[in-house]
Amino acid sequence: VQVEERGSGVVVTVDGQVDMHTSPDLRRPLRKALGGRRTPIIVDLGLVSFIDSSGLATLIETRRDIGDYDGELRLAAPQPPVKNLFRLSKLSSIFQIYDTLDEAVEA
């Protein structure tokens, strides 16, 4: 997981699989960004090949908590299997999902 500050926001780039073993590695920078009231928080999923329920729970928790200060959580560049998971689970209706990182940054 890599973190890059962008203005008042932050881009969190994830690589590989997000599962019960790796979701804490994603959760830590997201909690830090929430603590700093950063917005937008952009999670770059372009290199994520798989995400399980613990990874989804981390994103849902972040989506819930960022609302406490009217911040924005944006998901960027999910690969087709990951994007399909959001669609099938109906989570695409609660997340802002962008096809590219650039689109998420510029939104």
Secondary structure: elements and pairs:
Blueprint: E1 2-6, E2 9-18, H1 23-35, E3 41-51, H2 53-66, E4 73-76, H3 80-88, E5 96-98, H4 101-106
Parallel strand pairs: 2-3, 3-4, 4-5
Antiparallel strand pairs: 1-2
Could you explain how this protein is built, in words?
- With 107 residues, the protein is α/β, with parallel strands linked by helices.
- 39% of the residues lie in helices and 31% in strands.
- The chain is built from four helices and five strands, in the order ββαβαβαβα.
- It has a five-stranded mixed beta sheet with strand order 1-2-3-4-5.
- Helix 3 links the parallel strand 4 and strand 5.
- Helix 1 packs parallel to helix 2.
- The chain is globular, with a radius of gyration of 12 Å.
- The model has no long low-confidence stretch (mean pLDDT 96).
Question: What are its keywords?
Answer:
107 residues; alpha/beta; 31% strand; globular
What does the overall shape look like? globular
Number of distinct helices: 4
Instruction: Output the helix-strand order.
Output: EEHEHEHEH
Average pLDDT rating: 96
Which range does the strand content fall in? 25-35%
The largest sheet, given as strand count, sense and whether it forms a barrel, is: 5 strands, mixed
Radius of gyration: 12 Å
Helix content: 25-40%
- Strand segment count: 5
- Indicate the low-confidence ranges by residue numbers: none
Sheet/helix structural class? alpha/beta
How far is it from the N-terminal to the C-terminal residue, by CA? 23 Å
The neighbouring-strand order within the major sheet is: 1-2-3-4-5
